[in-house]
Amino acid sequence: MIRPDAPVLLEIRDLHARVEAKAILKGVNLTIRAGEIHAVMGRNGSGKSTLSKVLAGHPSYTVTGGSVTYRGENLLELDPEIRARAGVFLGFQYPVEIPGVSNLEFLRVSTNARRVHRGEAELDTFEFEDLVRERLQVVQMDPAFLERSVNEGFSGGEKKRNEILQMALLEPLVAILDETDSGLDIDALRIVAGGVNHLATPDTATLLITHYQRLLDAITPDYVHVMAAGRILRTGGKELALELEQRGYDWVDAELAALEGADADRQPAEVA
Amino acid sequence: MVASPTVRVSVGGGGLEGWTRQLLERLPAPAGALAAVQERGRAALAALPVPSSRQEDWRFTDLSLLTDLEPAPAGAVAATAGDLPPSAPGVVRLLLDGRSDPLAGVTLPPGLSALNPAELVQALGHTLAATGCEQHWPVELNHAASEQVLALRVASRHSVTLELVSTAAAGLLPLRLLLILEEKAELDLSQLVQARGAGLTSLVLEAHLARSARLHHGLVALGLPQAALLAHLALEQEPESAVTLVSATAGWGLARLEPRVRQVDGGANTTLRGLQLVDGRQIADTHSHVLFSGPEGELDQLHKAVADGAGRSVFNGAVRVPRAAQRTNAAQLSRSLLLSDRARIDTKPELEIVADDVKCAHGATVSCLQTDELFYLQSRGLAASQASDLLQRAFCEEVLRELPAAARSWGSFQAMLSAAGSGEDRP
Ligand SMILES: Nc1ncnc2c1ncn2[C@@H]1O[C@H](COP(=O)(O)OP(=O)(O)OP(=O)(O)O)[C@@H](O)[C@H]1O
Ligand SMILES: [Mg+2]
Fold first, then answer.
1. pLDDT digits (tens, 9 = 90+) for B250-276
2. What residue's CA is closest to ligand 1, atom 30?
């Protein structure tokens, strides 16, 4: 839902980031207002997951330039856990398995961390069980998964549902979902999309990273961005995704070449 | 891994040798049921070279902490279970103080009885000899000083649950245990060894399992940076018997654990689970030794270590499979978690396989907390310290969950882990 007067939740300006010595993000610009759903598409390796991890504060990525403002605050200054407590959520492309840590305990500790940040009371074990059982229905997940270790031995689709369950518990203001649709069967895709739609409100925003139109059939984006070589090359409405589906990404190379030529003219001394 | 040489200046002259001499001088004259054993141990200690890094078995483990301890038997301290919750109904808890008779005033459950003196003479030391450790320095030290032995028999087809609790203060606390499990007997033994002062706990346990007997032994050893533990756990297994030995040690300035198992005719089942935690300048060392003296024996061993601060963790897992031990199936895994670049981990499998038709797997890993695991937890709002605490506990849980029920219910190890995670008991 696009409302020009809606407050800006996330403002990314000329963001540059590298991992080790390799520059990956090379000037990302993106403004996300409350109520909006953004889709980011782009070839493998174009930097989509890197963008999502930089926003969540992964320590392996170093921001080398630009800024990210979250509700008026400098997001990049915050520790990852503070970002999460403040309402930034990253649904991982590859959720991590953590043997020996109970999923239920993990969910409770994280939910309480967010609640305390919002000035709400912590939930005790019983109150939390009630809440988690209710939220399980959003993703139609078997309660048996609560008893297992975090993501351990979960199938690809089960891991993704567990991510959406976490999102349902944490009630983020900005949800970044990195290929939450990959690895899902048709029913699961519908359930996950239903969950995302259910959680999207006029006060929250969603950034969907995806390769496929089928997710965007279920969750209608307000904006579609195409990422290439570490920046957003083109932005359009939902029809851009349909166009990509037909044309593929060949056109990207020509546009990139033109852009990089222009860069080279402007900044001849730039060292990547 | 970064080496952190431990430099200690020992006091009292003559280092460990001087300490041992002083101890021998201060032990009371040999007396009681163990007089002959005491004499033997004292003669041996006077003659044996003290452990030093020049001996392969002690290469990484510096015993000089002992010289900071009073070279004398512990004073009389009333045995107490401390703040342990009461034992479950029908479970006997025995308090060991090294002096008084732990069985005084205790009604033993059906199937459990004390050995008579003749049986004791016959059985005591048998398993130490069978597992080749009766002349080890820590064992001779125990021989020299033990005044008491708790010698119990579990009768055939009986199933018994037992708890043993000891608390060491200053000085030397020797604990000697002998367990005889008859055919098809079952013993579930939860043992807590704790320290309340700058003392040395010397534990020697022997257990003999007849055919089809089962022993589940959980040893929870919680020490202090100024306290030391030397333990030998010697087990002899007849065919079709099963042993599960789960040990968890933490907090000791020095802890050396030597589980020694011999499957006398093979065909038995041995499960070993070890967990040791070091922090500060602590040293924990497990030297396990499993000998298959017959075919078709099984070993499943997992040893875990967490090394923080400038702690040092040593694991040496010897497995001997001589020609007679065809179709042995042994698996040994050592997994260590390195939490500090000043800590040090030395882990070594020592497989000696002569038989040709055997399955012996072994592996060793040393890892740090995984960045991606930590980040995943942080990205859900857990503080970095909370996340690493959770991951550390998860690492330990794999061993702790196999403790017998009573030892688990004590919760002392979990509490200690949380305290360690919050940095409260860093020396
Ligand atoms: N930790 C890392 N170490 C080295 N290279 C990395 C690291 N993380 C990302 N990269 C590189 O950065 C580039 C962008 O990776 P990223 O994961 O952001 O791509 P993506 O757009 O999410 O791709 P996909 O569609 O395949 O998920 C790739 O070339 C990748 O190999
Ligand atoms: Mg990706």
1. 999 999 999 999 999 999 999 999 999
2. A45
B240 domain residue, yes or no? yes
Q: In what order do the strands lie in the sheet with A174-178?
A: A88-91, A174-178, A205-209, A37-42, A223-228, A231-236
**Tally of structural domains, chain A:** 1
Report yes or no for ipTM above 0.90: yes
Ligand 1 binding pocket (C-beta < 6 A) is A 19, 22, 24, 42, 44-50, 60, 93
Q: Which atom of ligand 1 is nearest to the CA of A227?
A: 21
Q: How far does the CA of residue A114 sit from the closest CA of chain B (Å)?
A: 6
In a domain, B183, yes or no: yes
B4: in domain? no
Chain A residues whose CB is inside 8 A of the B382 CB are 81, 109-110, 113
Distance from CA of B374 to the nearest CA of A (A): 9
CATH number, position A66: 3.40.50.300
pLDDT tens for each residue of B67-110? 999 998 887 666 677 778 888 888 899 999 998 899 999 999 99
Query: What does the mean pLDDT of chain B come to?
Result: 91
- Number of domains forming the structure of chain B: 1
Of A58, A99, A166, the CB nearest to B380: A166
Q: Name the percent of chain B lying above pLDDT 90.
A: 83
In a domain, B21, yes or no: no
